[in-house]
């Protein structure tokens, strides 16, 4: 076999990558740290399968991920299956089926790999590790705030600093539009203008010769202007004369901001009340977590309906997912464990005392003329010489 043949076998499909030392170990440690923080707040871990039947995987909120799901035929049952593109929908399925008789609120955590059909411009990776929690069976501001605070807590435990949280209310525009009885075509133009954050386009989308259109446009321009620091935004929203459903959502958001601020006074909180792209299955207060180091979204979460609403099987839920590839890029690498080379003939039992001192022990399995040279070749930081760990 030629060298070129070996190089060719090392190629992987776009968006897929091998995670090599030390990054693979860093990711595993980070997942363990996050799961431990979740357990400290009463979240119990579940482990759904990598592949399951299409109708359960893509039911309810999972329908939004249909275009991102790899599908295959199960040779046993002859039914279509999907490879999970996200773990939230699987945990929700477990909650409303296998754990439906457990007391609510139900707190579950998870960690594992997902794979998607395609990446995006900002996130080209198609396979990545997720870790997160779901709080199922309760609809309250306290639950929404818990999801935000727990995501921040886990990221800090992993070693990510200088975090900020961007809050969203993806159902607000629809609620306000419904209350104002906005027709479908103006609403479509409005959505496009809001996506561009274009005040002039918002006004144009809703302004014509009909009486009252300018007043309606002013409401949505005001929503657009509420983006920015969270406290300022919730104050602006509270001062608007919104339809009842929209006002209730704004009040809920303000309560969540108040609870998060009371628990973490220095956490930077921003608000964008008209953003909904990527949040299509969210049903209430949603959020993303970012760090000053790196531009990627570290975590995303919010309120949704767990289960299968079309079948009458659903519960209120909130939770979040942490994206481990982004976390590794935004966190500082932890110091690697020093590696101690043990020459041939050292009894196996003598490894334990050195391991207790924090060394990774690398035992020689072949004789070497120059132990120190061999130790360096094996990337060891120390070698055992006359029963002492000698730095190299």
CATH architecture of the domain at 14-170 and 275-330: 2-Layer Sandwich
The best one-word shape is: elongated
User: Can you identify the CATH superfamily of the domain at 14-170 and 275-330?
Assistant: Bira Bifunctional Protein, Domain 2
What name does CATH use for the topology of the domain at 14-170 and 275-330?
A: BirA Bifunctional Protein, domain 2
Taking strands numbered 1, 2, ... along the chain, how are they ordered across the largest sheet? 1-5-6-12-11-10-7-9-8
Major beta-sheet overview:
9 strands, mixed
Oligomer: single chain
Order of helices and strands: HHEEHEEHEEHEHHHHEHHEEEEHEHEHEE
Helix content: 25-40%
Number of helices: 14
Specify the structural class.
alpha+beta
Strand content: 15-25%
Using DSSP, what is the number of strands? 16
Care to describe what's here?
The longest helix is centred in the middle third of the chain and has 20 residues, at 244-263. Among the domains are: 14-170 and 275-330, Bira Bifunctional Protein, Domain 2 (BirA Bifunctional Protein, domain 2, 2-Layer Sandwich), CATH 3.30.930.10; 339-391. Helices cover 37% and strands 23% of the residues. It has a nine-stranded mixed β-sheet. The protein has helices at 3-9, 23-40, 54-57, 88-96, 141-158, 172-179, 184-195, 199-206, 213-225, 230-238, 244-263, 324-330, 351-356, 371-377, and strands spanning 44-45, 51-53, 70-73, 80-83, 106-115, 127-136, 163-168, 228-229, 269-272, 282-291, 299-308, 313-323, 339-342, 360-363, 382-385, 388-391.
């Amino acid at each position: 076999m030629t060298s070129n043949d070996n190089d060719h076998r090392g190629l992987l499909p776009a968006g897929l990558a091998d995670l090599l030392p030390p990054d693979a170990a860093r990711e595993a440690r980070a997942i363990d740290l996050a799961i431990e923080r979740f357990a400290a707040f009463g979240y119990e871990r579940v482990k759904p399968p990598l592949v399951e039947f299409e109708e359960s995987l893509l039911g309810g909120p999972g329908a939004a991920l249909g275009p991102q799901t790899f599908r295959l035929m199960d040779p046993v049952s002859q039914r279509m299956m999907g490879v999970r593109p996200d773990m939230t929908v699987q945990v929700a399925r477990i909650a409303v089926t296998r754990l439906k008789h457990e007391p609510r609120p139900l707190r579950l955590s998870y960690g594992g790999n997902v794979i998607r059909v395609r990446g995006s411009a900002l996130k080209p990776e198609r396979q990545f590790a997720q870790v997160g929690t779901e709080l199922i069976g309760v609809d309250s501001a306290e639950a929404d705030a818990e999801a935000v605070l727990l995501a921040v807590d886990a990221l800090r435990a992993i070693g990510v600093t200088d975090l900020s949280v961007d809050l969203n209310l993806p159902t607000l525009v629809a609620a306000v539009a419904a209350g104002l009885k906005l027709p479908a075509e103006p609403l479509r133009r409005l959505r496009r203008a809001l996506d561009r954050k274009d005040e002039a386009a918002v006004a144009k989308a809703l302004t014509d010769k009909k009486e009252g259109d300018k007043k309606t446009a002013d409401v949505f321009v005001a929503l657009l202007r509420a983006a920015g620091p969270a406290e300022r935004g919730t104050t602006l929203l509270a001062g608007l004369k919104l339809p009842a459903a929209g006002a209730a959502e704004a009040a809920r958001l303000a309560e969540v901001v108040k609870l998060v601020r009371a628990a973490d006074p220095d956490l930077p909180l921003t608000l964008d009340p008209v953003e909904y792209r990527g949040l299509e299955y969210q049903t209430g207060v949603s959020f993303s977590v970012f760090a000053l180091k790196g531009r990627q979204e570290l975590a995303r979460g919010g309120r949704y309906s767990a289960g299968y609403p079309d079948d009458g099987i659903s519960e209120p839920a909130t939770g979040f997912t942490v994206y481990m590839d982004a976390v590794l890029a935004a966190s500082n690498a932890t110091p690697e464990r020093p590696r101690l080379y043990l020459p041939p003939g050292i009894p196996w039992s003598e490894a334990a005392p050195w391991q207790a001192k924090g060394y990774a022990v690398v035992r020689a399995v072949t004789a070497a003329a120059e132990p120190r040279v061999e130790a360096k070749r094996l990337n060891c930081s120390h070698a055992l010489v006359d029963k002492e760990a000698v730095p190299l």
